[in-house]
Amino acid sequence: MSVLDEARAFEKRIDDRLIELEPLVDEYHELKKLKERLGIVPKESPAPTPRRTAARKPQRNTPPKKRRAKSSRNASKVVKLPPGRRQESVLEAIRSAPGITVPELGKQLDVDPTGLYRIVRRLEAGGAVRRDGAKAFPVEQSA
To answer: Which pLDDT belongs to residue 77?
Structure first.
């Protein structure tokens, strides 16, 4: 089967699925109108977007919008360290508080703990750390 045949088959599958879903979308809109007429308060739930029947306006060639810096609660928790420094700081924290957990490490280092799991596993694989359940302990290096 050629790529063109595959594209045509895919287009047909999309058309068939749209035909199959159309009555359901119509029923949704009818039920929504009935609910409004009956005065039933709508719950906060995502609703499917209404079908567009009008032709779309041609898009103008405008430059892309500039992205604003994200200002979220976790923005202050992001600590930028040079490559390799995060692993060193995790190892130092484990040495200073044996038995520390990854979420506790995140709080201590003021970073999101999600990325620290990989670092702790890497330290464990390298033999610098051993884990007992969720707790991480430094491995004493013999001289």
So the answer is: 47
pTM of the shown model: 0.42
Using left for φ > 0, alpha for ψ between -120 and 50, and beta otherwise, residue 63 falls in beta
| Three-state DSSP string of the chain | CCHHHHHHHHHHHHHHHHHHHHHHHHHHHHHHHHHHHHCCCCCCCCCCCCCCCCCCCCCCCCCCCCCCCCCCHHHHHCCCCCCCHHHHHHHHHHHHCCCEEHHHHHHHHCCCHHHHHHHHHHHHHCCCEEEECCEEEECCCCC
Per-residue model confidence (pLDDT) at position 37: 83
**pLDDT reported for residue 101:** 92
Q: Considering only CA atoms, which of 72, 139, 79 is closest in space to residue 107?
A: 79
Fold classification of 77-138 (topology level):
Arc Repressor Mutant, subunit A (1.10.10)
Domain ranges of the chain: 1-42, 77-138
Give the model's confidence band at 99: pLDDT under 50 very low, under 70 low, under 90 confident, else very high: very high
